[in-house]
């Protein structure tokens, strides 16, 4: 089947980190000659406004479906389970209807052929299930690291080895042997937080979501991961034994970048790069705890005191909702009181531009996977304070495997922040490791590199699926869906 006749629906979960990676993926598919429809929720597309159209391609378009929540719903990190459940129940009805119309579209409608394949976020199993029920071949895209995916896939083995559940108040530094390839360095505290004190039959709602996500990956036609062999070769090899096929095609932002304004749900500060221009090489600490992290006023105070004591200028991305909207103005004043030349606080920043800027010498981060691979590509050393479920294992890789930074884990203490920032800014060994890893990752994404070759294989795979499993427009399931 010619590339022009292949039409892929790409459907990310409506969260910043998920939209980010899958937007780069969609850009890459369009660049390979495939037609791509990128499916947002109505809420996300409204937040992007006209910026989504910044991706200029006649083969890439944007549509949306409701997520099922009221327009005034906050959709905060604490609402993730509710949001995913709303999408699964209410949103899936609109999703099925949209798929029906896209499959039934006449060749050439709006310049797009009928949809022939779906690539959906792994956190939304309903999206691939609905597509397969309708006869549309579908793939799973995992936006987290391969090592975190492998940890979830290892739950049965962890239980069999009596390594789960472990007591909530037990020794978190106890070694864990049940995740293959990580026996020499993995500790209890490095496992995704929702595995602590839980069993496979636990009623923990997020754990139940994660178990279903893992099951969905196992039954999918293939799993796509935004990673590279140089970063996670062992984890990828072990994942391959659990799934039908796996494609390591990242870091996508370095191979097929989409414009920052098309991927961000926040408006980036226009003066960030100019402020960095006024600082010496490797003299600034970049602080960003991601799009979901919520910290307390006490944690904010510890971070601020540690950064000030370290003595370096710092750029801090501080969302209005990160510490509570009622406190954000006062907290921003506390940061700017340090002095405009020594500190800058912004609501959002063009992170890729920041990390590649010559002035940035250290990245204090929540170790979200997008942030981790962006730092890896640029060779920027990291200080890691993991926040969400699967990011503990990312920070362990930074500190113990790649040795490209230091791992704070669940400690939030000003003295620790000060010590780690100073060590990372001043350590030639850490910087050398970060730069060596960057050279390897960049080779992966260049022509002939492992990720570039895997992306080409994925495009061929999608074309073959689109040819052999082309959905029947007259299948009775479509009538039932309307």
TrEMBL record:
SUPFAM superfamilies: UDP-Glycosyltransferase/glycogen phosphorylase
Record keywords: Glycosyltransferase, Transferase
Native organism taxonomy: Eukaryota, Viridiplantae, Streptophyta, Embryophyta, Tracheophyta
Database matches in Pfam families: UDPGT (PF00201)
GO molecular function, one term: quercetin 3-O-glucosyltransferase activity
PANTHER family in the record: GLUCOSYL/GLUCURONOSYL TRANSFERASES (PTHR11926), GLYCOSYLTRANSFERASE (PTHR11926:SF1392)
Family: Belongs to the UDP-glycosyltransferase family.
InterPro entries referenced in this protein's UniProt entry, alphabetically: UDP_glucos_trans, UDP_glycos_trans_CS
The protein, known as: Glycosyltransferase
Range of residues in the leader sequence: none
Transmembrane segment boundaries: none
UniProt keyword annotation of GTP-binding present: no
Keyword match Glycosyltransferase: yes
Enzyme nomenclature, EC number: 2.4.1.-
């Amino acid at each position: 089947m010619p590339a022009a006749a292949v039409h892929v629906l790409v459907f990310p979960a409506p969260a910043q980190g998920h939209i980010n990676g899958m937007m780069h993926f969609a850009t890459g598919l369009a660049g390979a000659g495939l037609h791509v429809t990128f499916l947002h929720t109505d809420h996300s597309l409204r937040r992007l406004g006209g910026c989504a159209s910044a991706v200029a391609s006649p083969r890439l378009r944007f549509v949306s479906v409701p997520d099922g929540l009221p327009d005034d719903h906050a959709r905060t990190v604490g609402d993730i389970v509710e949001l995913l459940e709303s999408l699964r129940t209410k949103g899936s009805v609109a999703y099925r209807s949209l798929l029906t119309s896209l499959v039934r579209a006449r060749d050439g409608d709006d310049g797009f052929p009928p949809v022939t394949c779906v690539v959906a976020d792994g956190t939304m199993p309903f999206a691939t299930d609905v597509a397969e029920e309708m006869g549309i071949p579908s793939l799973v895209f995992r936006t987290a690291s391969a090592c975190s995916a492998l940890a979830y896939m290892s739950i049965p083995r962890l239980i069999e080895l009596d390594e789960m559940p472990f007591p909530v108040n037990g020794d978190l530094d106890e070694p864990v042997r049940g995740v293959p390839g990580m026996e020499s360095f993995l500790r209890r505290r490095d496992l995704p937080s929702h595995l602590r004190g839980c069993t496979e039959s636990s009623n923990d709602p997020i754990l139940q979501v994660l178990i279903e996500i893992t099951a969905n990956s196992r039954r999918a036609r293939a799993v796509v991961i935004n990673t590279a062999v140089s970063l996670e070769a062992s984890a990828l090899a072990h994942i391959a034994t659990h799934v039908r096929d796996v494609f390591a095609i990242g870091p996508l932002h370095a191979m097929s970048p989409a414009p920052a304004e098309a991927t961000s749900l926040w408006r980036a500060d226009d003066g960030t790069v100019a402020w960095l221009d006024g600082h010496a090489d490797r003299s600034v600490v970049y602080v960003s705890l991601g799009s979901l992290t919520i910290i307390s006023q006490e944690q904010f105070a510890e971070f601020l005191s540690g950064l000030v004591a370290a003595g370096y200028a710092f750029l801090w991305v501080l969302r209005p909702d990160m510490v509570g909207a009622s406190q954000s103005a006062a907290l921003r004043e506390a940061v700017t009181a340090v002095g405009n030349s020594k500190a800058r606080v912004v609501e959002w920043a063009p992170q890729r531009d920041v990390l590649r800027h010559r002035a940035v010498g250290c990245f204090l981060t929540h170790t979200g996977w997008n942030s981790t691979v962006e730092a890896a590509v640029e060779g920027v050393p990291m200080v890691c304070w993991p926040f969400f479920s699967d990011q503990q294992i990312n920070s362990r890789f930074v500190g113990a495997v790649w040795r490209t930074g230091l791992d704070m884990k669940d400690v939030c203490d000003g003295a620790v922040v000060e010590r780690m920032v100073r060590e990372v800014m001043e350590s030639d060994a850490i910087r050398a490791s970060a730069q060596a890893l960057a050279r390897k990752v960049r080779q992966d994404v260049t022509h002939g590199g492992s990720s570039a070759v895997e992306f080409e294989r994925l495009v061929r795979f999608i074309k073959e699926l689109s040819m052999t499993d082309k959905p029947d427009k007259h299948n009775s399931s479509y009538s039932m869906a309307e």
